[in-house]
Amino acid sequence: MCVYAVFFSPTGTSKKGAQAIAAVLSPDYKSIDITKFDSLPEEITFEKDDIAVFGAPVYSGRIYKGAAERLAKIKGNGSKCIITVTYGNRAFDDALLELSDIVSSNGFVPVAAAALVAQHTYGKIQLGRPDENDLKEDTAFAENVKAKLENGQCEKISVPGNRPYRSGGKGGSFRPFTYACCIKCGLCVQNCPEGAIADDCITISDKCISCFRCIRNCPMGAKHVNTPEYISFAEDFTKKLSKRIENKYFY
Questions:
Q1: Pairing verdict, β 79-87 and 223-224
Q2: What is the CATH number of domain 3-165?
Q3: Residue 232 in 3-state DSSP?
Q4: Which residues are CB-neighbours of 227 under 8 A, at least 6 positions away?
Q5: 188-246: per-residue pLDDT in tens?
Q6: Which CATH code fits 177-224?
Q7: How far is the C-alpha of 49 from the C-alpha of 102, rounded, in Å?
């Protein structure tokens, strides 16, 4: 049996949750990062006894369509899995159900699920989350799921959501800009989830999904969205989503 953490995680929050859970199931778990558009071979097939922990962020109440396309290349064989979505304190809407449907159609059996609160891409919402408390909760959840599996309880679970799914799953409309301090190291080009940044490190195409990975990871702090439009939006959004909400677990 092998345990895998499989995640689409532009800013690292979905990765943290998936890996924290996978580590409880097996300290020797393996990671499969599907964040980059060219990150996967044609197809990966799991064995029946393998266990996968899937992690993906919520995009307007849905799974990002690019993540869904990459997940289609990962096949199970009646393999058990835990599904997780991360969201920035508004709602996860139909994303958890959609992820369950995606992995089920690929041959996996979701035996547990979690909707995990994380720092939102925009504004200053739930800064630092998942925090130490969140990761402790993830660990406790994983220990309960591990006990469930060891007891032979492997039934597919039901998760919240509606079909047809709500509209969503697309990227945002804010495009990063670049300050003159850019040294053209190419880090943003190499790690963009959609290959939206040209080799000059400045030109950004319409493939950009506004994940702000380039902003978070730029070693020079050269990438930004410091425009009046974004600043106004982010301030309003931060006020609307200021109340802390907690993670939700299903098993």
A1: unpaired
A2: 3.40.50.360
A3: helix
A4: 177
A5: 999 999 999 999 999 999 999 999 999 999 999 999 999 999 999 999 999 998 888 99
A6: 3.30.70.20
A7: 19
